[in-house]
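Response to reviewer comment R2.3. The reviewers asked that we include at least one raw input/output pair. We reproduce the pair for 2-acyl-glycerophospho-ethanolamine acyltransferase here without editing.
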Amino acid sequence: MAREKGGFWVGLAATVFYPLGWLTGRQRYEGREHLPATGGALLVGNHISHLDPIHTALFVHTARRVPRFMAKNSLWDVPVLGSILRGSGQIPVFRDTADAQQSLAAGTQALADGKIVIIYPEGTITRDPDGWPMRSRTGVARMALASDVPIVPMVHWGTREVYDHYGKRFRPLPRTELVLRAGEPVDLSAYRGRPVDAGVLREVTDLIMSRVRDLLAQVRDEPAPAEFFRRGPEREAGR
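Raw output as returned:
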């Protein structure tokens, strides 16, 4: 099958990401058959390290697809990186602003245009001490329900051993095995056609992220926690 065309900027990013990927671990890819060869898909991942986007991008690119990330808009202000993000069709996310809906609309349009869109619904690297997914933002559910595409859960494991942002540790040697695994698409048929309110968005978000969490439990070969970790104010308020 021919590779999906990404253009100059995707090619430039690839020349950087492939060496970085090799330098930061030994990748083991599993479940890439769940990524469609053509057409849109929403790839929903956990987030444990700043290295995750590099390895997610390679996971998708080696499946001969072009990755499009939902990423915080401030990255577009970084010299060179901002040019690559704009040129390669990445999607800026404007959190907690009037432009937040614009971000979701852009992501939904990319899915309708047959792109693979990648989202880390936690919004940041997990604060869970054991590396499990946190309670996530509901934008993923809004995009999933507005799109008729596969919703594919995926996980990274091992990237935090190489670069732990909160622990301020970077240890590329000895090279760590990094597991990236995609699972079967999440069945949202029970929610199609229902009014989309806050309750449905929370339910669908938790369903999707529970599939991500279960997939991570398989990779780790240990039981997952029964509940999602909640950050400071959420824990105190019991939300």
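The chain has eight helices and nine strands. The first strand starts at residue 26 and ends at 30. Further pairs are available on request from the corresponding author.
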